[in-house]
User: Fold this.
Amino acid sequence: MPTYAVPPIDPMSIRLEGTDRLVPEGPVLTRRLSDLEGLFAREDLRAAGAAGEDPIVYTVSSSPVPELPRELPQSITTIRPGTIGGEFHMTKGHQHPDPQGEIYLGLRGVGGLLMFDGQDTRWIDMSEGVIGYIPPGWAHRSVNVGDEDYSFLAVYPGSAGHDYQWVLDHGMGRRVMSSAGGHELVAYTAPTTSQG
Ligand SMILES: [Fe+2]
Assistant:
């Protein structure tokens, strides 16, 4: 027998409020520099920033649709512009413990979708109206490569889950750095220590 959400979810209309929020709104997540330990190449600079103003790097506004099997939750992620040691602001990135696909729809700003399957890395340029498709088995991270907020809508199977440790253990294959031409993907380097 299928398992349904308890209490059951009724058919519903969900509205974009601007490009930052879903209404009605479910859980909201705020990720600050202090939440991104071990992800940027310059861990020393990240730790220094986290010990200071500890700025918000990104927010995630979810709809009320629960992360349960057979449901199809949605969220809007907004990444603020900025760099840490030349590396663009980014999400933590995750792998789906239950390998299932996902789509991202660009809403505002200029960003990218970095994917890594443990061997190969792929990059999709994202902007308003672009759908990035994440096939099963590819870890995924979003990066803001512009100078304004980058927002996108995610739609994903409710049973997919979020394995953040996988990215800490395996990296994402490349790092996305600021360059004279805008951005460039460079070889992955392990983070510096916060003392180094
Ligand atoms: Fe995902």
About this structure: The pocket of fe (ii) ion is lined by residues 94, 96, 102, 140, 156, 160 (CB under 6 Å). The two ends are 55 Å apart (CA to CA). Residues 15-187 form a domain with the Jelly Rolls fold (CATH 2.60.120.10).
